[in-house]
Amino acid sequence: MDSKTGDLSNNLEQQRSRTLSVPVRNFSTRLLLRLSKMSIFKKAHKSPADIVKSLKSVLHVLFEQQTSGRKMDKAFEDLMKNLASMKSIMCGTDQHEPQSELVAQLSQELYKSEIIDIILKNLSRIDFEGKKDFTQIFNTLARRQIGSRQPTVEFLCKKKNILDILVEGYNDPDIALNCGIMLRECIRYESLAKIVFESENFFKFFEYVEMSTFDIASDAFATFKDLLTRHKVSCSEFLIKNYDRVFPAYTRLLESENYVTRRQSLKLLGELLLDRHNYTIMTRYISKPENLKIMMNNLRDQSRNIQFEAFHVFKVFVANPNKTKPILDILLKNQQKLVDFLSNFHNDRSDDEQFNEEKAYLIKQIKELRG
Amino acid sequence: MASCKDYDFIRIVGTSSFSSTAIHFTKHRRSSVTKAIRVSDLDACSSECVQFLQRELWVCRALCHPNVLVHDIAFVEEEKLYVINEFMNYGACSDVMESHFKFGLPEVLIAYILSEVIHALEYIHKLGYIHRGVKARHILLSSNGRVKLSSNRSMISMLNEKQRRKNVHDFPKHDIYLLPWLSPEILQQNIKGYDTQSDIYSLGITTCELANGHAPFTDMPNARMLLEKLNGTKPCLLDQTTVPPEPELIETHDGQNSEAIQQHQITMSRTFSEDFHQLASSCLNVDPSSRPTATQLLNHPFLQHTASGKENFATLLLPLTPVLPETQKLSSPVDRMVAEASGKLQSLNLSQYHWEF
């Protein structure tokens, strides 16, 4: 790469010495020389250190000084250029695969600087394609691996505020989905997911998943689900420790006015309770009559999908061999009704063998209940 | 906060059986701005289908281009998902052809529409996506010659975990109506996979569709379509240079065949330009690497003269005129009764059970 730049300047040098003797062509040569200093010739050959240095000064102009007008426009333009060069180093281009040496250099420069924080804090002010470029750079950076080491994960563990900024991003519709993409990349790593659990950040998701904009709410739900299902052991530890706070909040999701929130949270609850890592949480959950009531009401919800998801949680209460007294009481009080109800429940799902087996089992269990 | 109550639902302009979706022509009550609202009944959708709808919205949020339709906002009320879109008042190219241009659109208009669609494809491809749904039904037209590519639901990204993939293997299984437009390499599902060039094949089929009035391969069973594509059968634009005259057809004149005869007469009376034929043919090459890329296509001679198509957009589409809200009545009493009745049926469901706690 360097040799190319060398060739180019050699050529220009030769051209200049040749043209010096021909003054008429002087103007166009000067123009060519000036062009060579501009981005079109230099862009691809800028070193990672140069990019980071130039980014620093651009970010300073943009977000820390009171600038306006043309200076500002110019700075934004430079920011976009630097983001584009960073992206081509990190992710490669159509023609070139990324070069590991340059990627390493750029990553080191980024770890050393405050650039990631500053850009994230000001993400909403960057234009549409710039936000996407940065998201891609960030995610590629997050995935870096050297042998068994994950330098970016180590970096993010030290700079916990970056995760805070990403979680906070859901509050701003302009950057919510970009932040969501970056956050999901981070929580693929257990140590980073733990940081989210250990902060207040996790509880913010109970509000995010109910946001009125469907794109953002469902993105937040995807992150919420990843947090609860990806790292089984850490998650179960967290849930046990915070049961009294998490489950009342979760119950509000089950009673949400938003259909999608209700449907998705019911489904996720079924998955969580049936995961063997969550055995302790499951036994605790199914010992409480309030929880059984919610499921029985959802069984007769007007939406068929809600009924169906509720069935998969309800079955755990019935199948439990050690039912608590209050649970047994409710089931006994409704024994005949439940048998009738289940006999007519979703009979058209004849091709779903597992469901039909489970239903038959539940009916048998309920019939055999004795006080 | 947006709500469906802010809009007057005027009439249904399209439906999709997958995901129980209807597209409504609506007017915002306060601003009188017309909007197309896509309403999907989520309770009729499987979880997989709900995820699919969510994915589409996420993909759209990564796109920003004048020729790509991206929703304004999406929200959920009761069991329904409402996706608010700009209303494209001429509808889709396929609607335009159905209502007036049964045997194809004028060549100048096609040149303009194609160049707009190719701009959309160039943008989408540069981002590393494959659209996989290029067809006349997904090209929307609006006054002032605005053209937008819609239906981003089949889109797939070529960016995987680490970097750009050279090709992908996923099969777009949710839309069987797309099959005639899909490239041989997608249909083949072999180890080589496919890339952005498969959209160029679909564009080729769409080009024939716009010129001929119907898409090639739609008149045959899927198995035969697949065989024809793999054997390298190349559809073409139908005009007097490509279709042999059939005097018998005109002689055996009876009522049943009148459309075929009309089609034949029109075909024999027109000649598309050499450049136009060449463009369609190059897009339909079986070997993906010998098709031009979207960027190369923009320099194709056929697409260098699109100004007249843009300037005369409305005239070329005559006698069709854009749909205006004033000319439409509110939905008929029958529609309303059906809606009410179905609402009542839902609330009947299972209300006989009351649990005792």
Structure keywords:
heterodimer; A: 371 residues; mainly alpha; 23 helices; 74% helix; elongated; disordered N terminus; B: 357 residues; alpha+beta; 5-stranded antiparallel β-sheet; 3-stranded antiparallel β-sheet; 13 helices; 36% helix; ARM-like (chain A); ARM-type_fold (chain A); Mo25 (chain A); Prot_kinase_dom (chain B)
Helix/strand/pairing category of chain A = mainly alpha
What number is the mean pLDDT of chain A? 86
> What is the terminal-to-terminal distance of chain A?
83 Å
The percentage of residues in β strands of chain B lies in 5-15%
InterPro entries (chain B): Kinase-like_dom_sf (IPR011009), Prot_kinase_dom (IPR000719), STRAD_A/B-like (IPR047173)
Domain Protein kinase (chain B): 7-303
Protein name (chain B): Protein kinase domain-containing protein
Family (chain B): Belongs to the protein kinase superfamily. STE Ser/Thr protein kinase family. STE20 subfamily.
Description:
The complex is a heterodimer of chains A (371) and B (357). Chain A has 371 residues and is mostly helical. Helices cover 74% and strands 0% of the residues of chain A. Chain A is elongated and about 80 Å long. In chain A, 34% of the residues are buried. Residues 1-29 and 35-43 of chain A have low confidence and may be disordered. Chain B is built from 13 helices and 10 strands. In chain B, a hairpin with a 3-residue loop joins strand 8 (139-142) and strand 9. Chain B: This is Protein kinase domain-containing protein. Chain B: InterPro entries: Kinase-like_dom_sf, Prot_kinase_dom, STRAD_A/B-like.
